[in-house]
Amino acid sequence: MCAPLGHCWQETVRRAPAALAAIDGETGHAWTRAELDAAAMVWRAQVAPGSMMDGRFVLMAEPNGVQWFQVFLGLLFAGAIPVPADSTEPATTLRETAQSVGCAWFWHGGRLEPVASRRPVRRRDLCLVKLTSGSTGAPRARRFTLAQMLGDGRQVCATMSIRPDDLNLAVIPLGHSYGLGNLVIPLLAQGTALVCSASPLPNVLAADCARWHPTVFPAVPTLLQALVRADVDPADFASLRLVISAGAALPPEVARMFAEKFGRRAQGFYGASETGGITYDRTGEATLTGRSVGAPLEGVTMHWRRGRRFAVQSAAVLGRGSFVPADRGRLNEFGELVLLGRAGRLVKIAGRRLDLAEIEAALRGVPGVRDACAMAHPKLADALAAAVAADLLPAELRQVLRTKLAPWKIPERLLVLPEFPYTARGKTDRRRIAALLAAGRA
């Protein structure tokens, strides 16, 4: 029994079977919609015959590429509910994740393995499961319906003017919420084709752009920063009419250097796994100046609560259509969202409560600091630790902080890094930073 999202894709195929669907950047092979559909059918017949997956969760750990779509569509054709996961995780970790979220099967390394005997899920409108680690690092499963996933894709495409005749440059993880909303759903629901780049290295991206002429590039700050620093010809990227930056805040200085080098602005995009897209910088001005993360997407409304918290409502939002993210914020005079740090990040220092967002804001306000991350000291009690991305000395930071913060709020340990480590999803790798702070070295 084909899952609902599979039916959606088959309708897209029926409308234009010979239209381009995906390009393998490594081999150069271009797949039409009909060819990709047939390849997924072959995968299903060879790997998941019969009804063994019907209505069951299947964790899929497949690297980015056209093969990812063959597996994903094959699971949908088998009636499964896909649970996309990070293929770079060790097999033992992936299996533990599959068990913890209730999967019956586990696809990894070109093999399908049973996990546990599970009854089919009764809700036929369930579409897929997103995995999000939140602040704890433990995987959490978020179940989405077809209507919610289509709602996110439609809001993204309508706000960003992503059309069926566009060509997406696919580098970000396809199974992450960002990749699902900006790459996967636009292909399945409206036929927006993509080129799957073989590597995120700047020279490879330049070659792919020069050869295939993509028009839309959903990116993360680390990719854009690498392109700014790399010795690549800006003319290779001339086909891009839209460059999107999400996953973390793009430092304004990187945004400015990118605009100067490539002649187009990166446009900030903010969202959450539970809500899909929330805000978008329609002109790139807010990203260029660092004033906000943009205004709500079309179809998205925000309702304000106490403590600078806000609820997001749209057709894409998990559950009953309303969700309160962990971030705090405010609206500026342009109707744009200004983020003020995560809620619930209070620590006790010598019996006094302290909001870590205050420390990070003070650090980011120091000239030359590109980013900041504060936390309770990994080893010392009643002490703070912080890391910054900058080209300054710790003593220089402390001198400025003494004019901004009370002595007990100044971090005991200050680590200066040339740049922060990031996860594959483009977010600051706080666990890696914590390890560096605990080790006392960069």
Model description:
It is a single chain. By secondary structure, this protein is of the alpha/beta class. Helix content is 32%, strand content 26%. A five-stranded mixed β-sheet has the order 11-12-13-14-15. Strands 2-1-10-9 form a four-stranded mixed β-sheet, sandwiched between helices. The longest helix has 15 residues. The radius of gyration is 22 Å and the shape is globular. The N and C termini lie far apart (53 Å).
Features:
25 strands; 442 residues; 26% strand; GMP Synthetase, Chain A, domain 3; single chain; Rossmann fold; 5-stranded mixed sheet; 3 domains
Task: Give the topology.
Elements: H1 4-15, E1 20-24, E2 30-32, H2 33-47, E3 57-61, H3 66-77, E4 81-84, H4 91-100, E5 105-108, E6 111-114, E7 126-132, E8 140-145, H5 146-160, E9 167-170, H6 177-190, E10 193-196, H7 202-212, E11 216-219, H8 221-229, E12 242-245, H9 252-262, E13 266-272, E14 276-280, H10 285-289, E15 295-296, E16 301-304, E17 310-313, E18 322-323, E19 327-331, E20 337-342, E21 346-349, E22 352-355, H11 356-364, E23 369-376, E24 384-390, H12 394-401, E25 413-417, H13 430-439
Helix pairs in contact: 1-6, 2-3, 5-6, 8-9
- Uncertain segments are none
Shape: globular
Provide the helix percentage: 25-40%
Give a short account of the largest sheet. Answer: 5 strands, mixed
Q: Overall pLDDT, averaged?
A: 92
Brief digest:
The protein has 442 residues and is of the alpha/beta class. Helices cover 32% and strands 26% of the residues.
